[in-house]
Fold this sequence. Notes:
Strand order of the largest sheet: 9-8-10-11-12
Oligomer: single chain
Bound molecules: FE2/S2 (inorganic) cluster
Shape: flat
Number of domains: 3
Largest sheet: 5 strands, mixed
Strand content: 15-25%
Number of helices: 12
Radius of gyration: 26 Å
Amino acid sequence: MIKKTDQKVGAVLVVGAGVGGMQASLDLAEAGYNVYLVEKGPSIGGVMAQLDKTFPTNDCAMCTLAPRMVDCGGHLNIEKLTYSEVESIEGEAGNFRIRVRKKPRFINEDKCTGCGTCTTNCPVLNIAHFEDVDELGKVQLKEEDRQIFQQILSQHDINRESIIAVLQDINNRYRYLPDDILRHVAAALNVPLSLVYSLATFYNAFSLVPRGKYVIRVCMGTACHVQGGHQILQGLERMLNVPVGGTTEDMNFSLEEVRCLGCCGLAPVITINEDLYGSVTQAKLPKILKRYREEEVSVGIASEGVSDAKD
Ligand code: FES
């Protein structure tokens, strides 16, 4: 926690806790002023917290924002008044009197950890958004699907801790998560369908639409972007004749873009299923794809040097 610095005169009110408001509050607080940071939303962070990356550098928005949120959250000179709005301002420069309305949150702020489980399990929301929960397991599966589902279930404990493992097995088997089977997952594990969908849509590895046999992921993180990742993506779109997010008609290839695969030294990087290719150029793409078209694939890492060994 940041130490309270020497007190200066007066206090300052900052309205809006976006990245600008937070930085202003931090600068003032570090200068020794007491800061009241008023934000009408339920938390500090503002719109930037909803962005994936920033223009024009494609830097991760959260990497810019998170340190300021942490500093603001722990600074003893900053009093956060979230879910609040300024109602009136009276007085003059140096002697303002400001009335702030704080909206009710309907939770115990001392106990809330922000885990979101109450939202996921909210009976009002679930009933409003989904069909009768008693009907979830009654969706008829084809005999073949029913057997596959039962076989997958038999390999796991029947409780909510198994959800991700069950979804992984289903995703591996079908290359996506069929809607009917998700309903049976909810019923079998006795969890809200909303929870199943929140996991199914959160993880990149899951898909709600059928994917191709080979999923090509092109890294568009900062290092790969700078090293020409965009040209690689365009080259693959042209060669496969599908846009990003699409799947070829023969269901052989799906094309996706991802952020940083964690091997920036090999940029630009692509992966095809479990295989990783580094230092990729447009000229190398036909040769790489040919391996998969001819199904001569062996699993491995293929940076510049290693990929030659696979040729
Ligand atoms: S930016 Fe592509 S691997 Fe890190």
